[in-house]
Amino acid sequence: MAEHHPASDNKHKSALTSGASYSGNGRSSAAVADPGSDAGPAGGGGLSGGLSQPAGWQSLLSFTILFLAWLAGFSARLFAVIRFESIIHEFDPWFNYRATHHLTTNGFYEFLNWFDERAWYPLGRIVGGTVYPGLMVTAGLIHYVLNLLHVTVHIRDVCVFLAPVFSGLTSISTFLLTKELWNQGAGLMAACFIAIVPGYISRSVAGSFDNEGIAIFALQFTYYLWVKSVKTGSVFWSIGCCLSYFYMVSAWGGYVFIINLIPLHVFVLLLMQRFSKRVYIAYSTFYIIGLVLSMQIPFVGFQPIRTSEHMAAAGVFVLLQVYAFLQYLKDRLTKQEFQTLFFLGVSLAAGAVFLSVIYLTYTGYIAPWSGRFYSLWDTGTFPLKYVLALYAISAVYFAGVMVRLMLTLTPVVCMLSAVAFSSVFEHYLGDDMKRQSPPLEDSSDEDDRKNAGNLYDKAGKVRKHVSEQEKAEEGLGPNIKSIVTMLMLMLLMMFAVHCTWVTSNAYSSPSVVLASYNNDGSRNILDDFREAYYWLRQNTDEHARVMSWWDYGYQIAGMANRTTLVDNNTWNNSHIALVGKAMSSNETAAYDIMRSLDVDYVLIIFGGVIGYSGDDINKFLWMVRIAEGEHPRDIRESDYFTPQGEFRVDKAGSPTLLNCLMYKMSYYRFGEMQLDFRTPPGFDRTRNAEIGNKDIKLKHLEEAFTSEHWLVRIYKVKKPENRDRVEHKLRGADTTKQKYTSKKTSKRKRGYIKNKLPFRKGKKTTKKSL
Amino acid sequence: MSNSVISVISRFLEEYTTTTPNKLKVVDAYLLYILLTGALQFLYCLLVGTFPFNSFLSGFISCVGAFILGVCLRIQINPQNKGDFLSISPERAFADFLFAHTVLHLVVMNFIG
Questions:
Q1: What is residue A213's three-state secondary structure?
Q2: Which domain range does residue B31 map to?
Q3: Which terminal CB of chain A, N or C, has fewer other CB atoms within 10 Å?
Q4: Spans of biased composition, class Low complexity (chain A) (predicted)?
Q5: Which residues in chain A have their CB less than 8 angstroms from residue B68's CB?
Q6: Contact criterion met (CB < 8 Å) for A332 and B12
Q7: φ and ψ at residue A546, rounded to 5 degrees
Q8: Pairing state of beta strands A545-547 and A601-605?
């Protein structure tokens, strides 16, 4: 970028002169600014002899700003750790933590080939082939290096603080990228923005040990290396880009974004006739070595040559080879010769490509081209600042498709706004330089000198007119500049306040621990989840199997260390449907399913005592729907609603609902509990209703544990009885019929047996009489 | 039409042999060898089948990668292209070539199974 150095010099000098220009207006400012502009660099030189070079100050300033950005980003993500403790949040990070723990205890090859038999019982899960290992390997490597240096950090702390540390690295790589695309001032602003922007913080708070924490850093760094390799045309930078791309592939499924954006960039350059040998070298090396590197991750496998998302990259690669070869020929041959060859070559090539694509699609080797792929190639609107604009457009598209991908939009928004702010500041702070020179010719004798070489009168008139105009503008100039600068600074400060507020309120909850605030502001912590999981961990057999809804699978596996049936991976819908069916059926049918799956404990979440709305009764309809999808004859969703179509848990609720296992487990002994004197016993605070079935008796389960606020309830599945219970009436003594025997008679009457069974010799008694 | 194509090609070959420096001719010979090896591998795959697929892919991509890196080297050491690559001397180009090949072969060794 040619404007790089003058712009940064402008910034430096204007910083010195703008202070002087505030002091006055009109001619006085010119007078003050004159010596100011002269004294600026000289004064700087006089003040500190050795450090007078702008370049030295510039790099010191950059270093300080980047360091502060890292510190700010790190600190902003620590709210949850300070308010609660250093704990892994939510659900998915618990699986990542468990996998990392397995890596650190058992080694790398055990992790890569890990078959987890404690999840999805009895199916198991092939973890090595269904996970992006970058996150675990990064955390494991940091833990290994630290422990090697005898800094004994627990792996949990490494995992909790990994994302905040990497946010600082993201700031630095954003700075480098924006510096390459625009200038250093914009780079520094972009680094500061991305350190505190909420879109990125939401996925990288301390405790959120998830792929996005390291993936955004890898993304920005890969783009920086790509821009660098296109600029220099060196194979070294291209290989660097490949290695960074490999790290990105290992870290996140969003690597598809890179492998489509870079070919798009190259294609745009081709269309705009800006093909150069540097682009050819950069992209060819990146594609082929990036391809073979990306296939090293087991989860990715052969997808890069099979799925449609990767076909764009391959297509552009082939196109680029052909284009480069044609350029080479065109340079060597005359126009006519080239045309004859060209015609022949193009027709052959087009035919070959066409036939091969048809053949490969027909044999199913390449997945058919999806509509999403076509929409990536919308060539209608192409602004001219290539990479940044392409990145922005594609990021907006992706964010529109899936809200969670707003994360890919965040870095590019930071960079664009940094560019905008940088330009505004340059314009309003940097124009002092240009405005200095005309006022020097303000005095009349200087006018005469200047006009000597020009058309006498006209030039003089024009010059006076211009200088008067500038005199008038001088008066307005500093005021507008200062107003605009102040406004921009206020905007930035408000943005920082907003970011901190959003982070503190919305994104800093560990969701494993609940907190509520009383009227006097004191905090009430609800630690039921961990209480229940630790009860499981300490009071059940090591190989016990716990059935719960899939939301809690990872947490049970991570905290309670017990085998689960279904978890958040949700890769097997039929298995989840079986669990759903068990929860929705009556107790006997559910008991059959649970026996077939070897379930020992059942865990449910019940929020009726504290009014927690994320409990299992609120999710119950989803369980029913999923079960109905697989077992439509046994489960019907309409059975669980009242005839009027309402979902009610009170007396008017449907009998199927009132007798299903989930209802019984949630409200077992809840009918005896009176929460306060205003409401009757058995009042469910979440549904705001008095429950319908108050005396619940469980036949095949027994209550094992209920946490302090009844949030988590654990039931033990009873083993089958030793003998089958037979339903028959007990034989009872009949005391109603009494034969009156008078004692007045002297004759001794013979005694008799009451209720004597009819006896027939030689005949077997029937079963009925037993 | 075919006459003109043949004449074009023969003229091109003649010009090639006379104008290109020897250094580049060596690189071109190496590129031709890589191309033939890759074509042979592909032919083998078509005849015998793709099992084991990862081995075929690693071998074929190794050929393609070596070809591309050779082409990049040729472009960078060509004296006619000096204007495009001001900061890259031929020695630097060769060093980059070696570094890239190290990475390529390490990955291919891992992938070949």
A1: helix
A2: 21-112
A3: C
A4: 28-40
A5: 284-285, 288
A6: yes
A7: -115, 130
A8: parallel
B72 chain-A contacts, CB cut-off 8 A: 235, 281, 284-285
Return the closest-CA partner of residue A299 out of A254, A256, A242, A253: A253
Q: What is the rounded distance in angstroms from the CA atom of residue A541 to the CA atom of residue A283?
A: 57
d(CA B39, CA B36): 5
Q: Which of B62, B64, B110 has its CB closest to that of A296?
A: B110
Q: Which residues of A touch B4 (CB under 8 A)?
A: 337, 340
Are the beta carbons of B72 and A340 separated by less than 8 Å?
no
Structure-token match 């302090």, residue found: A708
Give the list of residues 6+ apart from residue B97 with CB closer than 8 angstroms, or none: A235, B69, B70, B72, B73
Q: What number is the ipTM of this complex? A: 0.95
Query: Which among A383, A389, A436 has a CA at the least distance from the CA of A415?
Result: A389
| Model pTM score | 0.79
Total domain count, chain B: 1
What whole-number distance in Å separates Cα of residue A581 and Cα of residue A634? 8
For residue B86, being part of any structural domain is answered with: yes
Both tokens of B41, joined, read 């591998």
Q: Which two tokens stand for residue A65?
A: 């700003």
> Cβ of B64 under 8 Å from any chain A Cβ?
yes
The minimal CB distance from A285 to the residues B4, B72, B111 is found for B72
B12 occurs within a structural domain: no
Q: Is A230 on the interface with B (CB under 8 A)?
A: no
Which residues of chain B are within 8 Å of residue A296 when distances are taken between CB atoms? Answer: 107, 110-111
Is A233 close to B88, i.e. CB distance below 8 A? yes
Run of H or E including A564: strand A563-564
CA–CA distance, A216 with A219 (Å, rounded to integer): 5
Residues of B with Cβ-Cβ distance to A276 under 8 angstroms: 84
**Which residue of chain B has the CA closest to A296?**
B111
A296 and B111: CB-CB below 8 Å? Answer: yes
Which residues in chain A are closer than 8 Å to B95, comparing Cβ atoms?
Answer: 236
- H helices then E strands: how many in chain A? 29, 11
- Flag whether B76 is in a domain: yes
Q: What's the average pLDDT block by block, 10 residues per block, for chain A (770 residues)?
A: 41 40 40 42 46 84 95 93 90 94 94 93 91 95 96 94 95 95 92 93 91 93 94 93 97 91 91 87 96 94 90 92 87 74 74 76 58 40 54 71 72 90 84 47 41 40 46 63 90 92 86 86 89 95 94 93 93 94 93 94 93 91 93 90 89 89 92 86 89 88 93 93 77 71 68 79 65
With respect to residue B101, please indicate whether it lies within any of the assigned structural domains. yes
